[in-house]
Structure formats: C-alpha cells, structure tokens
Write a structure and sequence with these properties.
alpha+beta; globular; 70 residues; single chain
C-alpha cells in the first residue's frame, strides 16, 4: 500500500491536517491511476529544534526531489 508521511512544524489544527491529508491522498491516487482507498497519509509534528535530527538527517539525498530553502 503506498503511503506518504508528512512532517511539519507544529501549529496546524486537526481540520487543516485532515484537509492536507485528503488532498495528498487524492493527488497520489490521480497520479498513480489507482483508487484513493489504497493510499494512506500520516502527519507528524516535529519541533524546529528536532528537525535536523528527526527529519533532515534521515532523508537519503537520492530520495529528496524538492529541497526546502530555510
């Protein structure tokens, strides 16, 4: 089952996270030409102080398609 894991700084409410998750699920289903029921989405809040260790350092360079500009 395809899955997308989203990590973001805290501050968004559940309604916003739900909207993001549903939109990402729809995009994946459309692009992969499959029913959206096959796609899961998770959202994890990560504090700014933990970002490098918890997120950035765990992404292999060959898997990073778009890099954020901080």
């Amino acid at each position: 089952m395809p899955h997308i894991a989203i990590q973001m700084y805290p501050g968004r409410d559940q309604k916003t996270k739900d909207k993001i998750a549903k939109r990402m699920q729809a995009v994946l289903a459309e692009e992969m030409q499959a029913d959206k029921k096959y796609f899961s989405v998770s959202i994890q809040d990560v504090e700014a102080d933990d970002w490098k260790d918890s997120v950035e350092d765990k992404i292999a360079p060959e898997n990073l398609f778009i890099s954020a500009e901080f």
